[in-house]
Amino acid sequence: MAIKLQNTNDIKIDAVKCVVYGGAGTGKTRLCASAPTPLIISAESGLLSLAETSCEYIAVTSLKEFDECYRFVKSSEEAEKFETICLDSLSEICEVLLEKILPNHKDARQAYGELAQSIMPMLRKFRDLKGKHTLFTSKLITVQDEETEKVTQELMLPGKVLPNQVPYMVDELFCLQTDRKGVAFLQTTPDRTRFAKDRSGALLEKEKPDMTAIISKIMAKASKLN
Hints:
- The chain is α/β, with parallel strands linked by helices.
- The chain contains six helices and ten strands, in the order βαββαβααββαββββα.
- 34% of the residues are buried.
């Protein structure tokens, strides 16, 4: 293989790729609606919070439909109008797909393995869409380590592979929370119990849950560097 040296100065960001996880009722679906011209891909029935908005969405119930959504977004002229592709939520999408896979395995661990092998390549395809912002949401689960008794809050995804791999797929990982007054905010930096990251360096430690504003900040910082 011929070695080709490249320079990090040549790396250009054409879109923001983000994962947001949070507890029930924190506003993950509403966050999707706040993104620039979003298309929501969902396996949930809990879209009532968007009843007063005008967001287009696609419901998926199988891996085949998930793949069809990707092909639609990537190649369809009708999908060119969408600036942001939102998968809301990965937790629910994976659970729906797992229900289809489980009957084919006597050992549930094999089903979890098949799910991870099937879903991860698809998630990377969505992440790598050129010129499209991508927002993956996930439910949150509280986990206590049996040995250290340390309590952490993590992405609620089936099996052990997906919770470990999904956070590393993107440069932006936020935890959606509410403060003592019930006001929602996005945590963009890690603490003792939650993992979060902002590799753009454009965001505050706590941001308002407005994806259009957040994406604008990140893209503005990136344009100065390019």
